[in-house]
Amino acid sequence: MIRRATRQDWPEIVRLSVEAFGASAWPWKRWRDLLSAAPQPVAEPVQALALVAAPAEPPPPLAGYVALQMIHGEVEIQALAVAKGVRRQGWGTRLLNAACERARQAGCHTALLEVRLGNLPAQAFYGHLGFRVCGRRPRYYHSPLEDALLMRKSLVAAASPCTEAGADAT
Ligand SMILES: CC(C)(COP(=O)(O)OP(=O)(O)OC[C@H]1O[C@@H](n2cnc3c(N)ncnc32)[C@H](O)[C@@H]1OP(=O)(O)O)[C@@H](O)C(=O)NCCC(=O)NCCS
User: Fold this and answer.
1) Same domain assignment for residues 117 and 101
2) Of 75, 93, 108, at which residue does a domain stop?
């Protein structure tokens, strides 16, 4: 089941985040602030929220999470991780699809995300779900320092998810 994350999910989300990202995981305070925020009206142009995947038969208590921010018609996928023990079982797909569908229903036309240049498994995952590389942000990540690839997907057009001319993966 995919549902909106609550304050009660905080410890498990932080645990999953550290498991997935180690030293570059979001600080626990950032999760606390996100999970404590009251839901905003659908019409609000800027909205931040997190979704979690809760398996019918735990453990783990949560299979994964996704954090997203909707800003004036675009949704940024800010964080996404699946518990190590349940990867390659479709949880990441369900979470990302749920995030994109929620954003589409809120009026977003485009989904964007950054991914580490060296995170080839995540790039393969996003590519599988229709995201395409549209740019590169030098020295974007810390701990360790690394470039980010910017990936994009249209939430309205079924074909041609990346329409920017000259998009370059390198
Ligand atoms: C990336 C991540 C979220 C994928 O979650 P997942 O639940 O394992 O993904 P799914 O089972 O939905 O995979 C869907 C498809 O994506 C692709 N994919 C997923 N993981 C992959 C991997 N490690 N290598 C290559 N392709 C992969 C495959 O095409 C897969 O389909 P298949 O299993 O039938 O071959 C998960 O590996 C993870 O949490 N990684 C660590 C955190 C991270 O890197 N997050 C993204 C940061 S930007």
Assistant:
1) no
2) 108
Contact 126, 113 (CB under 8 A): yes
* pLDDT tens digits for range 147-159: 999 999 999 965 4
Q: Are residues 70 and 90 in the same domain?
A: yes
7-66 pLDDT tens trace = 999 999 999 999 999 999 999 999 999 999 877 776 676 789 999 999 999 899 999 999
- Are 71 and 132 within one domain? no
Q: Whose CA is nearest to atom 10 of ligand 1?
A: 90
Say if residue 56 is in the same domain as residue 9. yes
Residues with CB under 6 A from ligand 1: 20, 80-82, 87-93, 115, 119, 121-122, 124-125, 128
